[in-house]
């Protein structure tokens, strides 16, 4: 008979063999569970009273079974610690006679990383987040614990985001036109589905960008037209016949250029003239240092720009929290692709983020991290000094571009590996069909290392550079 009992104390599953006495059957079932590892060493067992009630046995029967297994060494019993499965040496599988020892190659990754795209995860505001979660949970409506019937996400977070984005990023955001998603990539997938349904064939992308974003568009059957990128951002005057364009206008990734007013206007004029859509990736809009805040492109024409933002850089990518601010006619198209229920983001996490924003904790956290990243940026610039051709893209964001002499990008990345440092070259982000002159550079994510490793990481970079 196989059963599980959980009326008292810990849940315990045992296989009791039929035809044996009750005590003997219990002894054998516990012994086999410990021997096989189903009951891990250190597992605390239910008290004899609780297990006796669950099994319908006399308490003395269970106590005697426990005592027998303690005497055999399968269990331990100490005052105040209860009865536990004993720590026992686990037998190792035998090797065939004459078999040579197997030598496994050592797998050791880099000790330090300056790969961009991740904030300092050690800076996550754990205490403030827990406090917000406690308040959100206390006041959460009962329907927050259900499956979720609105694919746009919790209205509490959409309202908080509408106020925050208007105040900080200059976004025209109606809560009814905000759709929550599990990060930027899911938002891009949804928009790729919308474009496909509209029979769009070609999407313009920046000549430098992330492969994963291009893969999402290609996976939807969309062709890509790479726009050349220079110090003024993407050349939006070359949009031509594309049906949509994906841009990082506030801080081009990875070059760090800001899209100039003239090129912003050219993109909006193209969208109005052709009916195309601009997909704006505002991935690090909160982090500005030496220049005035650059508002979102969406503020120029909310009817033609799809604004996509996330908490990945300001808080942590592990939250899987993103949002889309959509033109009026696009909301229903996105919901048709997404489905009519919210399956992607935890309702309680959404309520926590809403509370985190409304309480001012989000603003305080961003200000604190902005100061931390500013100090790191200053230390980086001082460390590389004149050992690189130029340092650019540093007025905003969490990464810098270190320009190098021609032909040195690859060798320097290999040299970094000798110093146990992970680096990424600018060529990694280049679209294979982009019409741009070659440029050797390193893209250094100075926001990536934790504070405890920042000094050693910077030293490894300095040791790598000639």
Largest sheet: 7 strands, mixed
- Strand order in space, largest sheet: 6-14-13-12-11-7-8
- Residue fraction in strands: 15-25%
Distance between the first and last residues' Cα: 72 Å
Overall, the morphology is globular
Helix count?
A: 13
Residue share in helix: 25-40%
* Oligomerization state: single chain
Query: Segments where pLDDT lies below 50 for 5+ residues?
Result: 1-8, 89-95
What does this protein look like?
The protein is globular, with a radius of gyration of 29 Å. It is 37% helix and 15% strand. The N terminus is likely disordered. It contains 13 helices and 19 strands. It has a seven-stranded mixed β-sheet, with helices on both faces. Strands 15-16-19-18 form a four-stranded antiparallel β-sheet, with helices on one face. A two-stranded antiparallel ribbon has the order 1-2.
Quick gist of this model?
By secondary structure, the chain is α/β, with parallel strands linked by helices. It contains 13 helices and 19 strands.
Give the arrangement of secondary structure elements.
Elements (H helix, E strand, L loop, with lengths): L1 E4 L6 E4 L6 H15 L11 H8 L3 H14 L2 E4 L3 E4 L26 E2 L12 H14 L15 H15 L8 E4 L2 H14 L4 E5 L4 H9 L3 E5 L1 E2 L2 E2 L9 E4 L13 H14 L2 E5 L23 E6 L11 E4 L5 H8 L8 H12 L2 H24 L5 E3 L7 E4 L5 H10 L2 E2 L1 E2 L15 E4 L6 H14 L2
Parallel strand pairs: 5-17, 7-8, 7-11, 11-12, 12-13
Antiparallel strand pairs: 1-2, 3-4, 6-14, 9-10, 13-14, 15-16, 16-19, 18-19
Helix pairs in contact: 1-3, 2-3, 4-10, 5-10, 6-7, 6-9, 11-13, 12-13
């Amino acid at each position: 008979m196989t059963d599980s009992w959980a009326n008292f104390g810990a849940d315990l599953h045992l296989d009791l063999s039929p035809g044996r006495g009750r005590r003997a059957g219990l002894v054998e079932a516990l012994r086999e569970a410990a021997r096989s590892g189903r009951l891990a060493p250190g597992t605390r067992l239910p008290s004899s009273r609780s297990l006796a009630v669950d099994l319908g046995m006399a308490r003395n029967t269970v106590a005697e079974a426990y005592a027998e297994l303690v005497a055999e060494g399968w269990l331990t019993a100490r005052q105040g610690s209860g009865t536990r499965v004993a720590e026992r040496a686990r037998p190792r599988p035998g090797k065939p006679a004459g078999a040579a020892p197997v030598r496994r190659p050592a797998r050791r990754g880099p000790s330090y990383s300056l790969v961009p795209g991740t904030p300092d995860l050690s800076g996550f505001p754990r205490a403030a987040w827990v406090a917000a979660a406690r308040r959100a949970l206390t006041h959460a409506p009962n329907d927050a614990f259900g499956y979720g019937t609105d694919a746009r996400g919790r209205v509490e977070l959409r309202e908080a985001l509408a106020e925050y984005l208007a105040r900080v990023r200059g976004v025209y955001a109606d809560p009814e036109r905000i759709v929550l998603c599990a990060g930027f990539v899911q938002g891009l997938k949804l928009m790729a589905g919308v474009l496909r349904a509209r029979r769009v064939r070609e999407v313009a992308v920046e000549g430098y960008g992330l492969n994963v974003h291009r893969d999402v568009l290609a996976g939807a059957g969309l062709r890509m037209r790479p726009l050349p990128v220079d110090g003024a951002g993407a050349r939006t005057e070359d949009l031509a016949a594309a049906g949509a364009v994906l841009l990082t206008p506030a801080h081009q990734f990875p070059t760090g250029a800001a899209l100039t007013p003239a090129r912003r206007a050219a993109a909006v004029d193209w969208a109005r003239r052709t009916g195309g859509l601009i997909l704006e990736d505002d991935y690090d809009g909160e982090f500005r240092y030496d220049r005035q805040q650059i508002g979102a492109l969406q503020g120029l024409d909310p009817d033609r720009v799809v604004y996509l933002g996330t908490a990945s850089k300001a808080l942590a990518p592990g939250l899987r929290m993103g949002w889309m601010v959509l033109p009026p006619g696009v909301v229903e198209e996105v919901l048709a692709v997404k489905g009519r229920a919210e399956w992607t983001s935890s309702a309680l996490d959404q309520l926590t983020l809403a509370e985190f924003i409304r309480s001012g904790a989000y603003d305080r956290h961003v200000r604190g991290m902005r100061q931390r990243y500013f100090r790191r940026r200053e230390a980086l610039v001082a460390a590389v000094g004149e050992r690189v051709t130029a340092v650019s893209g540093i007025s905003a964001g969490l990464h810098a571009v270190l320009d190098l002499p021609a032909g040195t990008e690859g060798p320097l990345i290999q040299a970094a590996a000798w110093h146990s440092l992970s680096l990424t070259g600018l060529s990694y982000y280049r679209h294979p069909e982009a019409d741009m002159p070659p440029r050797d550079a390193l893209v250094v994510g100075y926001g990536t290392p934790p504070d405890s490793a920042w000094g050693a990481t910077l030293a490894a970079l300095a040791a790598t550079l000639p």
